[in-house]
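Task card 7
Instruction: Convert sequence to structure tokens.
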Amino acid sequence: MHTEHEIHQIFFPLDACVRPARNRGSILVVLIVAMVLIGALGAAVVSLNSTGMFNIVSHNSNQNAYYLAEAGLRYAATLYKNTDNAPGGSVDDKNADDEKRDVLENQLDGCTYQMPDGTGQFSLDVKTFWLYAKSDFSSGSRATLYFPAEIPDNFDFPASGTLVRFDRNNDECTPFDFSGAVLDRSGLRVTCRVRSRVYSDDMLYLAFPVQTSQTVEPGGDITLALNNQLQSGTYCIPPKNGYFRILQGTTIGDFDDRLLFYERAVIDGTTLTLKDVFDRDNTQFEGITIGPGSESKIVFKKNLVLESTGSIGSDSFGASRTVKYAVPVTDSFKGEVPESITFKTKKDLSDNFSAVNGEGMEVASYITAGGNSLFATMTSIPTSTDDTKMGTFALRKEDTIENAWRQNGYQLDYDVQVKLSNGKDLKYGGEGLSVRMRPSNGDYDCLGVSMMKFGGYGTSSYIILNDDLPNRLKAGNEVGWIREWSWVSATVVDVLPDERKILVLYDDSADNFVTSGNTLYWGRNWNKSATVQEAYLHDMIPDGIKPHIPGKDLTDTLLLVLWHQEVQDDGSLQRRWLAYKELPESYDPYIQGNQYGHGTPYDGQIVHDNTSLVVRMREGYEKTTKVNKINVFYGDMYDTSDPSIPDHEDPNSIAYDIVPRKRYVYGEPVISGTWNPQWPPRKISQWSSYTDYFTHVQNGTSEDSPDKFQWDGLNNSTDIDFDVFELADDGTITISELVTPNSGTYKVPEIGLHAFGNVYKGGSGNFRVASFNDFALLLFTPGYDRGGFLSAVAY
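Output:
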């Protein structure tokens, strides 16, 4: 390399200016040569600088890729730890290990996560050392046992040996022998003959009886014997940083309290040695004597291998780093089954709900068609500026809601239910549950789930005639018709001759609006007439929550609708339907209104009195986006003796189907004088005929093959601009809107009871009220130990 001085001499020769004059023109040659040399050296300098810059960028990219790989481990640990027991589970499912298993399989293994700023990503691969059962097996049968994720590299399974079975709550264990084991790597499973009964959702761990008396001490070794030799170079347990427990008998109480680990495992033929044993806190502990006399077994608990690959950039400036971790994982233990918060009296309503925006609320009881009294009745809803009516009773348990959200790691999961009834004269309208309610610009953003019927679209009642409209029919004129032997009239608001349409202002104090085929009269002495081709009675339901499917008539049909409300900057409300399900009589005869005709007692026209509605709200993550996961269930208390409808009290063996399911009676079942609400089981595999009170998944037969809950449609319009809006095969609707915050406070109503349509209490027995009964809320908070990743060690 030239020094600075040498470089200077090359470009500016010391004798260049003293060349003989006879060499005229040589100075030009020198300049040309100098320019060439300058260009060449400039390129060299640029090349040197570029190479240096590339080395710096390459180093930084590799370092950042490594950081991304580490971020993958932290993300996996956080997601696993914060996954808790799903709501609605049966009473014998009290911990989260089955949900955590699903996280390993579906949200971590084989998944790639992009950084929010788009600067990089990490990809995860999970390999597990333990097994679980998907179904029951009797003792002596060949069982098929599955790995929760991928099978580790260089893994082999002993042909025979000992397994320890833990039940789903980790509070019962059974050691037993197995034989004839065959490992199926592609199927992620082992088949073997088991010498004990195995139940669905049991977790199973390899164990090795201690053949010789030994003392386990900090930093010491444990020597075990395999029943048969593994393939050369393979392992059946983690080769490093493995987690194990010592079982000194045959029951859960015989486990030593310590969580023990070894730094590495060595297999030599049929001898297995665990090297450098230490406890969870890496502290000194008294020696533990183990041996054949105490029936000692070393049980290898949950261990996994996590490979995290961080990637950043692209082409020559990109980098990728993979880090492989040995990760011990602790169990989850059962927490208390959450108690229901139940309201079913007039005082309950007064103490725990308040009307939003001053809607009328009456706590006096009304008698339903089934002879039951109602604890909450909405008797008046103010008309909004768009000539619609919607009212809400907001739950006032803000402290309870916030505590549950905080205890659950800033996620709010619950089931909420209520029974719905409506007045006999309310032809169109709806009722239901509002969830994720939070104040916004003087009103509330929320999601709503409603049972509803509507009459059409638009904000005016109108009549379309078969014949052309006469020129003299103008705004302000009266038109009339005969319904049920009574004369009825309305005022013309506007006339649209090209459409043969008359917009009318109609006092709908009774169910007597003109219908298709009726004769409409007008003129002096009512001497003009025409036949009605079509008529629409403005139902005062916000148009946005009415599903509008081109070419499909959804009017006068009972619907189940999920919708979204958002307060705009100017204070107006944007309401949009998200999903709907048709519930005509041919689909579900139990929940239809007007079951008793117009006899006594009266039944509502929209739904049969005390129809149950249950909404299940859970929060989780789709990659790095927090989302709401929504499930909807419904039931009924149909109690007539129609021989064409199957008996409610004799449900069939199909989970969550409609015909038949059990009657969910007002205020029942009752235990010790207190209403004890029923809740839908969390999984189809936990369903039984004893809990068959609700419909959700139609004709589902097993956990592995549930039929899709038959939402008939999602709103795919461009107005729905959520980051995530999906329908899963199990009927779960996932949306990214209205999730709870990840820090701070959350003092909001969260839940409400809503009604919409022309709701009011008229005179002379004219009831258009909306009523609610048997409200119950089941908040889910974690148990005392969720289980999670322990200290990971890189390979």
